[in-house]
């Protein structure tokens, strides 16, 4: 996804002279084409993310369209006060991109994990929060973000993410994309776990359970129309995210659900536990530790579906 980001931001920089790219001492060679095509509009701000956020907010107040890029924890938790006060309070169009989100950097330890970013970013007034599943959605998110007049946070993966064909590829902020139809249960995925969600749907199909799959590339604003349809028509609605089960997409949907009259569907939430992962391992190892595998998702959804039918 980071290569797709570099390619798309280069195109956007050529088409819009207001676009300025700020990096927190990462991806310098990655942006060689951007620097060549948009001379003077790439700034390596060094390991000074709080300052970088203030610089970006000042640029946005001056009519530019700054895009910030660095590893997710360093563009969120490290400079959270500046995001809140400089970008969100002034409601300026700063685009914040966090690369290697979730457990992408599992082998580097908890300092590089980002399982809280959706929660802390979505609670900020004026902030739009997005988590594209693949490079296709990433490009769509970037183009849509540049049309916004307020701050936008986009969490992306690292490399090698699978492109998921969509049944409906019409993109709109705050509107989910349908990936697969089904009549028994509904699976909601966000971010780079979407291929795993689709694999879980295939496993359920083999057990005679058809699953509708929705890609929620936008966390905030929440697509309440799709959520309402899911809980109105399916006995089980499972939300899968590479993020804490507290405060992310599942938390957002739970908050919405608590305000509704009694609905048909039961909510299942798949995410990371309320702890730090002290082990060191691959992203696949970390996902398996937290049950973010197709086998585990399908098994738990199957049990919940059976209980709902009993």
Characterization of the model:
The protein has helices at residues 2-15, 32-37, 49-61, 72-75, 80-88, 117-122, 135-145, 194-206, 224-233, 249-258, 283-289, 294-309, and strands spanning 19-23, 42-44, 65-71, 95-99, 128-130, 152-155, 177-180, 185-189, 211-215, 218-220, 236-244, 266-272. With 310 residues, the protein is an alpha/beta fold. It has a 7-stranded mixed sheet, with helices on both faces. The chain is globular, with a radius of gyration of 19 Å.
Order of helices and strands: HEHEHEHHEHEHEEEHEEHEHEHH
Question: What assembly state would you assign to the polypeptide chains in this entry?
Answer: single chain
Helix content: 25-40%
Structural class: alpha/beta
Total of helices: 12
Q: Give the radius of gyration.
A: 19 Å
How are strands sequenced across the largest beta sheet? 2-1-3-4-6-5-10
Q: Note poorly predicted spans.
A: none
Mean model confidence by pLDDT: 96
- Largest sheet report: 7 strands, mixed
The separation of the N and C termini measures 43 Å
Q: What global shape is seen?
A: globular
Strand content: 15-25%
Number of strands: 12
Question: What is this entry, summarized?
Answer:
38% of the residues lie in helices and 19% in strands.
Furnish the topology, listing elements before pairings.
Blueprint: H1 2-15, E1 19-23, H2 32-37, E2 42-44, H3 49-61, E3 65-71, H4 72-75, H5 80-88, E4 95-99, H6 117-122, E5 128-130, H7 135-145, E6 152-155, E7 177-180, E8 185-189, H8 194-206, E9 211-215, E10 218-220, H9 224-233, E11 236-244, H10 249-258, E12 266-272, H11 283-289, H12 294-309
Parallel strand pairs: 1-2, 1-3, 3-4, 4-6, 5-6, 8-9, 8-11, 11-12
Antiparallel strand pairs: 5-10, 7-9
Helix pairs in contact: 1-7, 3-5, 8-12
């Amino acid at each position: 996804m980071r290569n797709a980001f570099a390619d798309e931001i280069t195109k956007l920089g050529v088409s819009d002279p207001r676009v300025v790219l700020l990096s927190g001492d990462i991806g310098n060679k990655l942006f060689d084409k951007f620097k060549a095509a948009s001379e003077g509009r790439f700034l390596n701000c060094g390991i000074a993310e709080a300052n970088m956020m203030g610089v970006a907010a000042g640029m946005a107040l001056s009519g530019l369209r700054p895009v910030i890029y660095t590893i997710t924890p360093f563009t969120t938790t490290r400079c959270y006060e500046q995001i809140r006060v400089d970008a969100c309070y002034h409601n300026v169009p700063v685009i914040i991109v966090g690369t290697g989100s979730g457990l992408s950097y599992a082998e580097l330890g908890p300092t590089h994990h980002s399982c809280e970013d959706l929660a802390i970013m979505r609670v900020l007034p004026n902030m739009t929060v997005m988590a594209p599943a693949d490079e296709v959605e990433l490009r769509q998110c970037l183009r849509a973000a540049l049309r916004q007049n307020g701050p936008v946070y986009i969490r992306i993966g690292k490399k090698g993410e699978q492109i998921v064909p969509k049944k409906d590829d019409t993109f709109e902020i705050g509107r989910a994309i349908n990936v697969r139809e089904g009549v028994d249960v509904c699976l909601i995925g966000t971010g780079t776990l979407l291929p795993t969600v689709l694999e879980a749907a295939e496993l359920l199909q083999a057990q005679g359970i058809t699953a509708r799959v929705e890609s929620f590339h936008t966390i905030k604003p929440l697509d309440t129309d799709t959520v309402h349809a899911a809980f109105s028509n399916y006995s089980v609605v499972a939300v899968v995210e590479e993020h804490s089960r507290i405060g992310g997409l599942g938390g957002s949907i739970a908050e919405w659900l608590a305000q509704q009259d009694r609905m048909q569907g039961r909510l299942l939430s798949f995410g990371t536990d309320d702890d730090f992962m002290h082990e060191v391992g691959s992203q696949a190892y970390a996902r398996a530790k937290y049950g973010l595998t197709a086998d585990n998702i399908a098994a738990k959804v199957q049990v919940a579906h059976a209980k709902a039918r009993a």
